[in-house]
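User: Hi! Is it possible to get a structure for several chains at once, not just one? Here's what I have:
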Amino acid sequence: MAAPSIDALGQFGLTTGLGQLGRALHFTNSNEAMLAAAVVIVGIFALGLQARALVPGRMQSLVELLYEFVRNMCVDTIGEEGLRFFPLVFTIFAFILIGNLIGLFPYFFAFTSHIAVTLALALFVFVFSTGVGFYTHGFRFFKFFVPSGVPGWLLPLLVPIEIISYLSRPVSLSVRLFANMTAGHVMWEVFAGFMLLLTASLGVVGAFASVVPLGLNVALAALELLVAGLQAYVFAILTCLYLHDAVHMH
Amino acid sequence: MSEGPDKKAFEQRLQAAEDAAQGPARESEAKQASSARRAIELAMRLGVEMVAAMVIAVVIGWGLDKLFHTSPWLMIVMVPVGMAAGIRNLLRAAGKSE
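Assistant: Yes, the chains can be modeled jointly so their relative placement is included. Here is the combined structure:
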């Protein structure tokens, strides 16, 4: 038997999903997970909104909590106008949250661990918020890059800084989510690989020793649960912040 | 859902029940939790904010160098600008959350 080795990045490889049909359409396992996330979200809402009770049951509570959490986030960060963007923010939050959570399960694919996906989401938010800025303020939106109360001779230095700071938004937004998800899954794989290596090289002693990486993985699972929720929250609140900047220009 | 006096009475009773059940202690607890959430959110953001500005600045400099055949001078010029933009990002992120 060949000695087991740690292939930490293999888990992120794309394969085709949905059998023959998927192969023909280039439908990947990442797309499959996205579809699953969408189905889970719609399913939770369909289930939770069936009762429509004044005193909500469990599912309805879950739905109402989610709704109110995002709604408060919108209103607190953007202001009353924020409700116009509530559907967008909620969609992004729910998609990333469920995507992160689905990715934690064995045999499921964490599509948020691909920078292609997170960058697409971040670029959409970036272009959309810039569009909102120009739509609300017209060409006065360019003033966003000119800090107020600064002597004129400093502007040639400060305007490029502001522009670069603005352009770095989609990068930081996408890299944060992608890096957190990837790092968590890589650590899981590495510790799981340790267990195989220990048993293969030390036999019975190694099998007992592999309790240590197993324990670490259990602790990591809790951490990853936190990170999955937190990253979805951070992505959504930054979307709100950028929309706030576009609507109010500070 | 039906609006009206029925709902208003319910809201009042809910408010009274919440006040009775929670009191001021629960409120400060909630405030503490939200400030902790802000702190974690900030910790997650700050590192990446700085690196992202740097990456964008260097990529712009590198692209302009390719365009004007001035390698590597514009990239070198852009590095301090990128650092400044990164610090600007940090200040903005830290200021917003207070």
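The helical segments of chain B are 5-68, 73-96. Chain B touches chain A through 25 residues (CB under 8 Å).

User: Great, thank you!
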